[in-house]
User: Fold this.
Amino acid sequence: MIRILFLFAVLGAGLFAGTQFSGQQGYVLISIANQTIEMSVTTLVIFVMATLAALFLLEYIVKKIFYTSVSTFNYFSVRKMRRSRRYTNEGIIKLLEGDWKAAEKKVTRWANHHDMPLLCYLVASEAALGQGDKAKRDYYLALAAKQQDSQLAVDLTKAKQAVREEEHELALPILESLQQNYPHNTIVLGLLKTTYRALEEWQALLDLLPKLKKAKMIDESEFSALEERSQCGLLEDIASQQGSEGLISHWDKLPRKTRQSAHLVGCFTKQLIARKSDTEAFTVIKEALKKQSHDELYTLLPELNLPDSYPAVVLLEDTLKKNPNSANAHSALAQFYFREEKWADSQRHLEQALSLRPDVSDYAYLADTLEKQNMTKAAGEVSRKALTLIER
Assistant:
């Protein structure tokens, strides 16, 4: 439009000049080497305008041809991209439906024409894994890794697949590398939690728990449960590596709040008992029970191999004076009486324990106690009750 206006302006100026200088056309001489060209000014103006018009027309034709070819190319490119997107969407649906083979075929068929081939190859890797073809899965992951800005998506896919296949040793280095680069990525944190638990990396899990809590991935109850499990697992590892001395040293360094957990006291004393440190274990249990009654700890007392069981018996008798409804304390005291062959006392406490809650082990002890007192019929009835409880 601007060019047309320019031509009209030039033409108008020519017409105006022509009327002003009518009959005075002037003279133009152009000399190039041995060639000379003569013409009037009016002829020169007309020639220049015609030349400009021809150039503008040529430019228009060239652009029209170029735009037509580009539009044609873009049409086919967009058509291929749309088809690729359609196949990819269908492939994702097939993946969700569990049709692995169809999913792989659809997402890879036009992957080269997709505007995000990374998505196609990642979906294809999932489909290949669904078919159990890990070689093909790795092939698609390698293709995905060649795409731009693909590291996070590819590594997360690898880690997810490894965790799903319970190949936690393969997932761990990938996840730890990702955590360094993406410390707040919730998917990485969640996968690390699963991996650390599976590999029993208790110290690493303990260090991870505050991050999980801060990211609101676990609530307070799960945080406490995981912390107790990790601390208990760590106690087992230290006991196996450093023995009783190292175990006691580690326990003394723990925060007071942690050492007040009945579950952890139980884990600690179990490791001491396993390493023949029964006297130390009894001291720990006694101190813990002085502060608060814990049913779990009463069950550990009969497992102790003490040179003198009298302090344990006195502890349990005092407990039952304060809390006569502690079934586990009744059961533990009955077992000590059983060892001392005090059959009547053992029977009495076992019956009280069973009146508070059913327990197969207590039924077995009661049957043996009755047998020792030649109460065969009663022992048989108790044994049948125990079998009925087992069959439930």
Notes: Residues 41-97 form the longest helix (57 residues).
